[in-house]
Amino acid sequence: AGNRTFTMIKPDAVGAGNTGAIIKMIEEAGFKIIAMKKTYMSKERAGQFYEVHKERPFYNDLTTYMSSSAIVPMILEKDNAVEDFRKLIGATNPKEAAEGTIRALFAESIEANAIHGSDSDENAQIEGSFFFSRVEQF
Ligand code: CMP
Predict the structure, then answer these.
(1) Domains of the chain in sequence order
(2) Over the stretch 4-51, which tens digit does the pLDDT of each residue have?
(3) How far apart are CA 50 and CA 53, in angstroms?
(4) Which residues are noted in the entry as ATP-binding (predicted)?
(5) What is the ipTM, given to two decimal places?
């Protein structure tokens, strides 16, 4: 039991062959994988996923990058999932990410930063449902 968060391993980390190492860290940190797949977003789908950042200067680059190759979205479960997962991944900018965090270990840049983590329970639900059907979320 516990509550849930949504994550997505980003194209830089998938392309570098770090998917397995990242999943291992996630499981060792006590998260249970509820749903997972390897898939792709079109530029248009990436634009929808990052709609909240539409007015930001990095929006166009971000959606181009996120649609450039494969991603691995997952729904995860653990007590205090959203907050604990954000601790596990570290700061958005890998230069500011704490030692031992997923971004400190695997991120290339503030944009190609290896992994996403939802920032609230509400967004975890919305983002998980962007990739997974209801039956896949059981
Ligand atoms: P994430 O927090 O998963 O979702 C928003 C993404 O936008 C973030 O990861 C980064 O990949 C990207 N991002 C955030 N801030 C910047 C920035 N200043 N420059 C480029 N990309 C950014």
Answers:
(1) 3-137 (3.30.70.141)
(2) 999 999 999 999 999 999 999 999 999 999 999 999 999 999 999 999
(3) 6
(4) 10, 58, 86, 92, 103, 113
(5) 0.91
